[in-house]
Amino acid sequence: MKTNNPIFLIFFIPLIHAAQLPEVVSWEQIKAQISKNPDSTYVINFWATWCKPCVQEMPDLWEESEKFNTKKVRFVPISLNFPDEAQTKVLPYIEKNFPGKKFFIFNKVIGPDDIPKISKDWTGAIPFTMIVKGKKTKTFERKLKKGELETELKKLL
Asked: Could you tell me if residue 6 is inside a domain?
């Protein structure tokens, strides 16, 4: 019996390389994950597709955080796009620029009451990056320069 079916290949090969929808999360879920893994270092980046500095820094953040995969560094890019934009705005951006990478989107629009729950150092401006290891947190409410994340991670590890 012949197993190579060209129709199967035409329809399913594109699915293999397609990006996955960003996972919808709450801040409570992120905090719980950090608590479960206190020996890991988390690079949490709040961004949006409409934020030019966010989009500009994203390739460097991925590249620099991946250098530390063996040292339990987890990059957690959380989109602040509206949750209903996951498929129309965030997914096309991921498919074009970061196929196969894991992204997240908040389950609601972040309001002024939510911001201090995430970080007392955050005014709500993006990009906003937090490096969290155990009880230590370092924050950046601006676009990180190329190499800056790597430098900060080396200090922590």
From this structure: no
In a domain, 4, yes or no: no
- 41-75 tens-digit pLDDT: 999 999 999 999 999 999 999 999 999 988 899 99
Tokens for 150? 């790597």
The total domain count for the chain is 1
Distances (CA, A) of 147 to 61, 113, 136, 140: 9, 33, 21, 14
Cα(112)–Cα(116) distance, integer angstroms = 8
| CATH number (domain holding residue 113) | 3.40.30.10
pTM score: 0.85
Which ranges of 37-145 would DSSP assign to H, the alpha helix? 52-66, 91-97, 115-118
**Whether the Cβ atoms of residue 117 and residue 107 lie closer than 8 Å to each other:** no
| Residue 13 scores a pLDDT above 60 | no
Range of the domain at 90: 20-156
The token pair at 92 is 């096309």
Query: Taking a C-beta distance cutoff of 8 angstroms, is the pair 106, 22 a contact?
Result: no
110 domain-assigned: yes
Answer whether residue 109 is part of any domain: yes
